[in-house]
Amino acid sequence: MFPGPGRGTIKGTGYLCSCKACSNKVLNAYEFERHANCKTKHPNNHIYFENGKTIYAVVQELKNTPQEMLFNAIETVTGSAINQKNFLSWKASYEAATRELQRIYGKEEVTLPS
């Protein structure tokens, strides 16, 4: 969400805008930033969680988190409540993809590109 006039909620891969003009429309990062009267080439540096951290800062913190600690770290780093149903669905999908990579490459531990 933006610290200024634009407020929204992360919804899927976009941002659910809470203003009356949008009628709860989901916008991508660039659209959401423009809609809040801010124009940069790095919207994730200007979209904030409730704890004041930008999306970019959160990603930077999480990218060095060991895989086995990632899911616990997400909630801590964002400082925001997580929709548990969606989070568990995403986590299961991530873990299934990791197992498939391990099966394909025959490795105990698969390092995913950052």
TrEMBL record:
Keywords: Nucleus
Residue ranges constituting the Tify domain according to the UniProt record: 8-62
Keyword Cell cycle: no
Record's subcellular location: Nucleus
Predominant location category: nucleus
One Pfam family it belongs to: TDBD
GO molecular function: chromatin binding; histone binding; RNA polymerase II transcription regulatory region sequence-specific DNA binding
GO biological process, one term: positive regulation of transcription by RNA polymerase II
A single Gene Ontology CC term: nucleus
Official protein name in the record: Tify domain-containing protein
Organism per entry: Salix viminalis
Phylogenetic placement of the source organism: Eukaryota, Viridiplantae, Streptophyta, Embryophyta, Tracheophyta
